[in-house]
Amino acid sequence: MNTNKKQHWEAVYTSKSPQAVSWYQPHAETSLRLIRETGVAKSGAILDVGGGASTFVDDLLNEGYEQVTVLDLSAEALRASQARLGSRAHLVSWIEADITTVQLPENAYDVWHDRAVFHFLLEPEHRRAYVRAVQRSVKAGGHVIVATFAEDGPEKCSGLTVHRYSAEELHDEFGNSFALVHHEKEPHETPFGSIQNFVYCHCRVQKGEEFVKPNSNPLEP
Predict the structure, then answer these.
(1) Residue 107 and which of 43, 53, 145, 207 are 20 to 30 A apart at CA?
(2) Distance (Å, rounded) from C-alpha 49 to C-alpha 52?
(3) Under 8 Å between Cβ of 121 and 130
(4) Does domain 3-15+27-205 have CATH number 3.30.1780.10?
(5) pLDDT tens digits, one per residue of 146-160
(6) In angstroms, what CA-CA distances link 126 with 9, 77, 120, 162?
């Protein structure tokens, strides 16, 4: 686990309430709609990467999803969600870990969701480790929904430099073992009234395909 990264995020969630960070959403409407559109059964296994203090887990439980796992680097962020959920916290599996080093179970998840973790991975080897984790832990035919700052989004978040993506660039990072289903942009209004542009990509995992990062991978609308 990267100690410096962990210290950074523990400090963020120790010094600020979950509602006072720029990425806060009362409800993650776009993510929830994309999960619904996968058609995954309510008994399907969903992993929320970087879910931390997000209310997305609340929305998933309210929708009746029965196997939700939240992974985050910050113990403070996870504790905030657990406190908010109260007696419902035991319905969720909680993992405190770095997504680039954690050993997740193989073929365990029907849906992998990540809003705003991948764009913090500046080193190519960290991005490759992330993609390997997806390939290992998501079932064949499973769904991968990843959102990052768009190419016209902010250059920094929480004091850290991020990597901004177009939909094509984001899909290219995952390679030909991920079939693109859909992509869209979302203008996120922060608690401070500013707008941050996100891009979302929804892919299906094609098992048996060796990971190859393509030189070009045109998107269909």
Answers:
(1) 53
(2) 8
(3) yes
(4) no
(5) 999 999 999 999 889
(6) 18, 22, 10, 13
